[in-house]
Specification:
With 264 residues, this protein is α/β, with parallel strands linked by helices. The chain has 2 domains: 2-95 and 248-261, Probable inorganic polyphosphate/atp-NAD kinase, domain 1 (Rossmann fold), CATH 3.40.50.10330; 101-241, Probable inorganic polyphosphate/atp-NAD kinase, domain 2 (Tumour Suppressor Smad4), CATH 2.60.200.30. The protein has helices spanning 11-26, 45-54, 83-91, 163-166, 253-261, and strands at 2-7, 30-31, 38-43, 63-68, 76-78, 96-109, 115-120, 123-128, 133-139, 142-155, 178-186, 199-202, 207-211, 217-221, 224-228, 231-247. The chain has a 16-stranded mixed beta sheet that branches. β9 and β10 form a beta hairpin. The protein starts with a strand and ends with a helix. The structure holds NADP nicotinamide-adenine-dinucleotide phosphate and manganese (II) ion. The site of manganese (II) ion has 2 residues, from loops.
């Protein structure tokens, strides 16, 4: 089995990276940054987002596991004092894998400039670079609403505890193959009207956003910031691809939610 380790880059995470490296090579596992079967991220949830995007082109061959060097994370759920247990588990082939949905985002451009496809592990947000975001929202081909406000956040179930939660979106269990659309400060009065509630779309449902005015858009894909000009539409749906996590011990999602947000 081939492994790669990605560290957040601080002294503690780098030290743990070196320890894992030593342990795993001691077990005769092969270090391979290019084509790993398992990627170990050491840092926080942000580090795992970075790792996901480093290996986004080989999701079907690579599984992820996260060690946290700060607070308990949703993706980084192993503590540094569990390292030995973790590497012993990893050395046992094959380990169990759980698969979670990811979000497919397709940005299409005007005047024959083609399209760009992205996968997000947490979410995609869209805002106008200046003024309010004004977009028509279509669901499965039917116009749903014209949205006016700060922006929209389209998240995965595992991303539902991140930005989506701050927008009062629901927390979705990652066994649900779905995406969630949450509003950022929509303008609602007698002239402008949006649904106001977060929407959850199942697999195969498509949400398409079409700009009403000609402005540039700030689009985020997880921790990545992009500016797109000349956008014709942005399409969202549950991706065909899934993200794979090594499941080495039970750690129920709802327990993680409680420990992260409510405490013990
Ligand atoms: P960051 O500013 O460090 O992230 C903000 C916080 O979100 C960090 O505490 C991060 O954990 C945590 N986080 C990331 N993914 C999560 C998840 N799936 N569930 C629960 N918490 C999660 O930036 P970053 O580390 O590069 O992460 C990018 C993410 O930040 C974006 O994908 C977005 O979800 C989130 N964000 C949130 C808000 C908000 O809540 N208002 C605004 C912008 C962005 P770690 O400290 O362990 O990295
Ligand atoms: Mn972070």
């Amino acid at each position: 089995m081939k492994f790669a380790i990605i560290s957040k880059g601080d002294a503690t995470s780098d030290k743990i990276k070196r320890q894992i490296m030593q342990y795993l090579t001691g077990f005769d596992l092969e270090h391979d940054e290019k084509k790993p079967d398992i990627v170990i991220s050491v840092g926080g949830d942000g580090t795992l987002l970075y790792a996901f995007h480093q290996y986004v082109d080989r999701l079907s061959e690579t599984a992820f596991v996260g060690v946290h060097t700060g607070h308990l994370g949703f993706y980084a759920d192993w503590t540094p004092d569990e390292l030995e247990k973790l590497v012993i588990h990893l050395a046992k082939i094959p380990f169990q894998v759980v698969q979670y949905p990811v979000l497919e985002v397709i940005v299409r451009f005007n005047s024959g400039k083609g399209e760009k496809r992205y996968l997000a592990l947490n979410e995609c947000t869209i805002k106008a670079t200046e003024g309010s975001l004004v977009v028509d929202v279509f669901i499965n081909g039917d116009k749903f609403e014209t949205f006016r406000g700060d922006g929209l956040c389209i998240s995965t179930p595992t991303g539902s505890t991140a930005y989506n939660k701050a927008l009062n979106g629901a927390i979705l269990h990652p066994s649900l193959s779905a995406i969630q659309i949450a509003e950022m400060a929509s303008i609602n009065n007698r002239v402008f009207r949006t649904i106001g509630s977060p929407l959850v779309l199942p697999e195969h449902h498509k949400c398409i956003i079409k700009p009403v005015n000609d402005v540039d858009y700030n689009i985020t894909i997880d921790h990545l910031f992009l500016v797109h000009k000349d956008v014709k539409s942005i399409q969202y749906r549950v991706a065909e691809e899934r993200v794979r996590f090594a499941r080495l011990r039970p750690f129920p999602f709802w327990v993680r939610v409680r420990q992260s947000f409510i405490g013990d």
